[in-house]
Amino acid sequence: MNTKVEASLNKQINAEEHASRLYFAMGVWCDKNGFSGSAKYLYAHAEEERMHMIKLVHYVSERDGNVIIDSLPKPQNNWDDILAVFTEVLTHEKSVTGMINSMFEVCMQEKDYLTSNFLQWYIQEQVEEESGAREILDMITLAGNSQGGLFHFDKEMAAKAALALANPVVK
Ligand code: OFO
Q1: C-alpha distances in angstroms, 22 versus 8, 79, 110, 148?
Q2: Which residues in the chain land under pLDDT 50?
Q3: How far is the CA of 148 from the centre of ligand 1 (A)?
Q4: Which residue, 87, 101, 11, is CA-closest to 56?
Q5: How many whole angstroms from its chain centre is CA 39?
Q6: Considering only Cβ atoms within 10 Å of each terminal Cβ, which end of the chain, N or C, has fewer?
Q7: Torsion of CA 109, 111, 113, 115, to 10 degrees
Q8: What is the DSSP code string of 102-153?
Q9: Is 144 exposed, middle or buried (0-12, 13-18, 19+ CB in 10 A)?
Q10: Domains in the chain, start-ordered, CATH in brackets?
Q11: How far apart (Å, rounded) are the C-alpha atoms in residues 62 and 168?
Q12: Sign of torsion, CA 127 158 153 20?
């Protein structure tokens, strides 16, 4: 496997695992702060990021590359409120989109068309990931500071979590 492509895929393997732990930490915060539906959603999202990592690991192995499971930064563990949690989800997903675009650029520079084809799945997935985060932020904004509004928001998040668990993105 081309060494530059391999290095960029390994960087992404690390980033997906970090995202998984970050979303897991957000889920823990939600559980502790009364948002059990949002916690379920974030735990499911953490699992999804782990599957994104595993999909990359399998791909590198299939192409006879070397997978490096590297150390991870400590994720953030505390947020001011539920709006801050999901604002960070969107910010994080935007940065992942940038990383995936960079991987794609490396593939094009190195003429690794097989990997650029493989990455199309991740590129498409980011459309969903960013729009999903925006939708959740809109729901929180609509709920405002109303306890009833936030209660209904969290019920909606529980339903989203159930849907995500029933329809895993990576099978
Ligand atoms: Fe949330 O995205 Fe992975 O790739």
Answers
A1: 21, 12, 32, 28
A2: none
A3: 31
A4: 11
A5: 15
A6: C
A7: -60
A8: HHHHHHHHTT-HHHHHHHHHHHHHHHHHHHHHHHHHHHHHHHTT-HHHHHHH
A9: exposed
A10: 3-166 (1.20.1260.10)
A11: 23
A12: negative
Q: State the pLDDT at residue 169.
A: 73
125, 68 Cβ separation under 8 angstroms: no
The pLDDT of residue 30 is 98
- For residue 93, the CA-to-ligand 1 centroid distance in Å is 7
Judge whether 119 and 104 are in contact, CB under 8 Å: yes
What is the model's pTM?
0.95
Candidate from 26, 125, 169 with most ligand 1 atoms within 8 A of CB, to mutate: 125
| pLDDT recorded at residue 170 | 67
The number of the ligand 1 atom at minimal distance from the alpha carbon of 126 is 2
Total H helices, total E strands in the chain: 5, 0
